[in-house]
Amino acid sequence: MGDSLVEINDEHFVVDLMYAGTHHNMTGVAVYQEIGLGNHAYVHKDLWAKLQLLVPYLEKTSQKLKIYDAFRPLSAHKRLFSVINRDGFFIADATQSPHCRGTAVDVAIIGTDGKELVYPTLVDAYNKDYAQEVQSGNFDEFFKYLKKASLDYEDLSMREAIKNRNELYELMTGIGLVPPPRRHEWWHYELKDGRSAKYPPLDI
Questions:
Q1: Buried (b) or exposed (e) across 19-38, using 16+ Cβ within 10 A?
Q2: What is the rounded distance in angstroms from the CA atom of residue 173 to the CA atom of residue 116?
Q3: Distance (Å, rounded) from C-alpha 35 to C-alpha 75?
């Protein structure tokens, strides 16, 4: 993995990588198992330093941060893109993905009851029916649904979900992370300069 990456192995964080299995995976392919990464989450040491700033808050609130995706090896990204090769899912050029640089995470908060808080969508906008559709090459209905994943989406019937999304935003930006440029994934946060040459893409 190199000296720049560290594994997330801390009681305040729950690692459940969606691409390590098929139960919460829009592609339906356990790519991380295929390449030998398994359910091990790595991030660049600079990102890990930021995430550790969450520990006092997580301890105070008796919550945990669930990690759905972190470092994504270049080979894994290319494999995922081969399954669903459509912009809006995965960047066509794997070297441009902050995940492939270890500078991004996909996350949600687990509450005091041990259950994930409700959000406008599941992480990755996962939905079993839509997953089957997009794996078959049908994207129209899913992309309509994906609008709910935007940080700017508002719906008075989803007040709790919107509140939780906004609180996650405040929490993650409060430690110096930023959402993706298009603000279209409420679960994704990255280093401000995490797409720069300072952080080269990596593989295993």
A1: bbeeebbbbebbbbeeeebe
A2: 20
A3: 8
> How far is the C-alpha of 126 from the C-alpha of 69, rounded, in Å?
13
Q: What one-letter code names the amino acid at 152?
A: D
Say which amino acid occupies 58: L
Q: Give the predicted TM-score (pTM) of the model.
A: 0.96
Tens-digit pLDDT string for the chain (204 aa)? 568 999 999 999 999 999 999 999 999 999 999 999 999 999 999 999 999 999 999 999 999 999 999 999 999 999 999 999 887 789 999 999 999 999 999 999 999 999 999 999 999 999 999 999 999 999 999 999 999 999 999 999 999 999 999 999 999 999 999 999 999 999 999 999 999 999 999 998
Q: Which two tokens stand for residue 194?
A: 């995490």
User: Long-range contacts of range 59-64, CB-CB < 8 Å, 24 or more positions apart?
Assistant: 59/12, 61/112, 62/112, 63/109, 63/110, 63/111, 63/112, 64/12, 64/13, 64/14, 64/109, 64/110
